[in-house]
Amino acid sequence: MTIEITHTRREGTLIAGTSRGDGSAEILRLREYGRTQRQPFRWSRTLDCWYLPHSRDHATYTPSLELLAQRLRDAGFGVTLTIDNADRRSFSEAEEEREEKAEGRAERFGGYAATAARNSESAWKKSHEISERFAGGQPILIGHHSEGRARRDHARMDDAMRKSIHERDRADHWTGRTQAAANYAQFKKNPGRTLRRLDRLRADLRAVEKWQRGESVKGYSRNPDDPELTIRHEELTEEIEHWEQVIKDAEAEGVKIWSKTDFTRGDFALYHGTWYEVLRVNPKSVTIPHIHNGTGKRIVRATGNRHDDWTWTAPYNGVSGRKSAAEMQQPTQAEAA
Length: 337
Fold this sequence. Notes:
Strand content: 15-25%
Mean pLDDT: 91
Order of helices and strands: EEHEEHEHHHHHEEEEEEEHH
Structural class: alpha+beta
Radius of gyration: 30 Å
Number of strands: 12
Largest sheet: 5 strands, mixed
Oligomer: single chain
Distance between the termini: 83 Å
């Protein structure tokens, strides 16, 4: 019997050729694989094979798969190992599939929540119906012929109520999961988060380009001829273009993306629900009075604060509004009150 271990960025790490009870499962379930060397393989009924979670759209950690192949060979299996990190899908394809899966999860979890809610309601009604027998406060008559039935009814009533509470908790759980899955696309495309993501991706791209030039980045160097750097450069470029388009679409829909050109010293920036006077305008942020000054306040001016010597920087991707100094003079009486 030959077990085939394959990895591509497009499909991830897959294991084919195993059968139930052949002893391979014990090896595959060890938490020693993947890029973290702490992941087990899992069986997929959809794929009808073993797979390594979170291995799609990433380069594999080759020593981990070589270790797995050697363990399987030591157990008497024939093993082939094929790695092709260059075979990948575009970022847009991957993101589209993730959104589709999130929609599927939302629908599935919604069904779980509805079922649990119905079960909770049914169990509560059952408990209530049984309790009607004791509505008048009828006690259990010790030694009476009705004692056995009364105790059984109490037990059934208690079990039904416990089931109702348990199913209600399950319904709440799946409702939360449904909401999270339904909000996936909205969460990922939130302008503030997208801008922060773009900053990180651009920094990663600059690092890759420096490695390709033979420079040291993040405290170490890499082989400029490493094909993985070329693949990573393509991936980052695609992802940056994708999220830049998301920002353009948001702007077309009327979302304001703040930048250096929108502020001057003395303006006020709305940051985390509080208006702060702008002390300095920077390329990627505005300098404001320290956020400790904003506790319990709606407006924080440049002076008259507890920590006047402390400052804070508010990145533009966290700013949600702007007012001029003249506009901020209007609520002065209300502020004083």
